[in-house]
Amino acid sequence: MGDYVNVKELFGCDVFNDSVMQERLPKKVYKELKKTIEEGKELSMEIADVVAHEMKEWAIEKGATHYSHWFQPLTGVTAEKHDAFITAPMENGKVLQSFSGKELIKGEPDASSFPSGGLRATFEARGYTTWDCTSPAFVRHDAAGGTLCIPTAFCSYTGEALDQKTPLLRSMEAINTQALRLLRLFGNTTSRRVTPSVGAEQEYFLVDKEKYMQRKDLVYTGRTLFGAMPPKGQEMDDHYFGTIRQRVSAYMKEVNEECWKLGVTAKTQHNEVAPAQHELAPIYAPVNIAADHNQIMMRILKKVASRHGMRCLLHEKPFAGLNGSGKHNNWSLTTDDGINLLEPGKTPHENIQFLLVLTCILKAVDKHADLLRESAADVGNDQRLGGHEAPPAVISVFLGEQLEDVLEQLISTGTATRSKTGEKLATGVKTLPDFMKDATDRNRTSPFAFTGNKFEFRMVGSKDSISACNVVLNTITAEAFKEACDILEKAEDFDLAVHDLIKKYATEHQRIVFNGNGYAPEWEKEARRRGLPILPSMVDAIPALTTDKAVELFGEFGVFTKTELESRAEIQYEIYAKAINIEAKTMIDMATKQIIPAVIKYTTVLAESINQVKAVGPIDVSVQMDLLKKASKLLKEVNSAMNKLSKLVDQVEAHPEGRERAVFCREKLVPAMEKLRQPVDELEMLVDKEMWPMPSYGDLVFEP
Ligand SMILES: NC(=O)CC[C@H](N)C(=O)O
For residue 242, what is the DSSP state? Predict the structure, then answer.
């Protein structure tokens, strides 16, 4: 059945990876490049020229006609400009194809139209893209033909970061330096690098393209702005891990193949909780590669969907009342020689290095909970957080039974003497093999959950880049490691000092640990009592970026300057206001041009029917009358809610761009939009389906 796929041959076939480099580059050049990749040594132009030449030859063999510096500006999506390899025609009228070291290393997109949050005036438009040689180049095939994509970082003329990648690379340096210090203290002399390792699970929805096109809200905003719940939603839990329908299976097959070609380790796929919702998860990779791969994966998910007559929705909450989509960011710290700093071993209470790492992370997350929350702030995520298996907008850490017990021992007696172990799984069926279950269960309501040998940050939205949250995780952990090392390196009795420090951190930061139900209303009260930041909306979260605490943290590790942080906050406010404004305008458009006319038609038909029936004789028309009255009443409500919303939209521009405008949108527009949605959704339940001007939730999610 189907065509045979040789995965081993397919995997990475369009990537300029280590084996291609080794095969094609002269030995000396290969060695120099490796030094740059592994140790950050500067690359000479001579070497760059040779690499560029070989890269071009290889890419042309793969069918590439163009190259592109591929980068991630602060628009939330990737950007690229394509240049053909051709040179000016020679006298004989023919062209050559060339690609120089300079072209590989440096690009200069005309960058004035990318968000800079005031960092760059339009008359100072210069921006540079620089090759990130730690993330391999690849040839992408699509309707444009073959393009050699070179992962790059994007900075302004004065060196300020204008993208997601630059701070990520900076934060990787910070955590590497501090984690190595920590390892040395415990006698490790062999590890040379510590890298954050990340696996980002990607959730998404698939809907039929024809139906999608009939919904302006999906087209313009990526989510439905109206829509009554169908008689069946996700309450039966029959979609999660259910049999994958053939149309979707065929889609997934192609997605996997395209991912594999580009070296993206598409590994686990399944149906998610909501009907029409699915997930694809890769294997761990160094965080900058994981971030690039996630962008590639999102693009493939979208592109392949079009080929199959579908649309892939990456929005965090395409359908109110159904599960939203997240991007669970599984984060750990690993050394180049294979040690995972977050591996507790069988007896965590004896693993002092692990306990120090763990308590440092508790301290980091407690101190910077606001920043971690902000790193997942996204307009769509405001709809998702706090329900349907997405964490609430309050940061806490789930440790699970085993570690919580160790922590409690540490706090109460100063030393931990035992670790709870996983027990045998008792199924009560003799023919099923016995195995030991994990010492800890999972918790889906926790934003930051320890899951065996990593932390799963569940707050990130499905559409968002994973860079921001990893910048925060890396930097806050680097800070905690640094503070611990500063003390321990000076200690006369290391064992005693480390013991005291672990106890101190565990005690002082215990408040961030919460193993219970994050949805329970009591938790919010309790979190408030503990003094944890509660930041329900993106607009509430943005100020975390520019507090003195944040400026100091990011400044110390060279991750962001104060100006960069201010510019990022500015961009976030702008993004928020623009997105809400588009949503509000889309609602008005749909209400005016589609919904109100449909309801008028429906009420007219009802009225005509009443008259016609009455004309026949004294027949009871009270049902029709009832419907007519109800529909007319709701129609009036729609009209008045819409007028109110229109007036507010008109006022948006009077508010200065930035925080003030975002706050206005959050406080005025968002509630007015909800007011408009209510009567429309009620009408959808009332009006003849034939007359309703767009596909319903049921149409969209049950028959994609
Ligand atoms: N089963 C799951 O892990 C569901 C997660 C959920 N979709 C979210 O928004 O994060």
Answer: P
User: What pLDDT was estimated at residue 76?
Assistant: 79
Q: Report the predicted TM-score, pTM, of the whole model to 2 decimal places.
A: 0.95
- In this prediction the ipTM stands at 0.95
Residue 438: strand, helix, or coil: coil
- Do 392 and 403 contact (CB within 8 A), yes or no? no
Q: Residue 384: CB within 6 Å of ligand 1? A: yes
Instruction: Please identify which residue in the block is written with the tokens 């993106």.
Output: 538
Distance 468 CA to ligand 1 centre (A): 20
Sequential DSSP letters for 34-96: HHHHHH-PPPPHHHHHHHHHHHHHHHHHTTEEEEEEEE-BTTSS-EEEEEESB----TTS---
Question: What's the 3-state SS for 409-436?
Answer: HHHHHCCCCCCCCCCECCCCCCCCCCCE
Rounded to whole angstroms, the Cα distance separating 543 from 50 reads 47
Fill in the DSSP letter of residue 244: P
| Partners of 513 in the β-ladder | 397
- Looking up tokens 């899951």, which residue turns up? 451
Per-residue pLDDT reduced to its tens digit, 470-525: 999 999 999 999 999 999 999 999 999 999 999 999 999 999 999 988 888 899 99
Minimum-distance ligand 1 atom for the alpha carbon of 328: 10
Structure tokens at 635: 């129609």
**Residue 670, φ and ψ in degrees, nearest 5:** -60, -50
Ligand 1 atom index nearest CA of 277: 7
Point out the ligand 1 atom lying closest to the alpha carbon of residue 458. 10
- Which of 296, 313, 284 has the alpha carbon at shortest distance from 384? 313
- What angle, rounded to 10 degrees, do the helices at 287-307 and 246-261 form? 140
Dump pLDDT digits (tens) for 326-353: 999 999 999 999 999 999 988 888 899 9
Q: Write the pLDDT tens digit of every residue in 574-602.
A: 999 999 999 999 999 999 999 999 999 99
Residue 333 tokens read as 């710290």
Q: Which long-range contacts (CB under 8 A, 24 or more apart) does 645-654 make?
A: 645/584, 645/587, 645/588, 645/669, 645/672, 645/673, 645/675, 645/676, 646/588, 648/584, 648/672, 649/581, 649/584, 649/585, 649/588, 652/577, 652/581
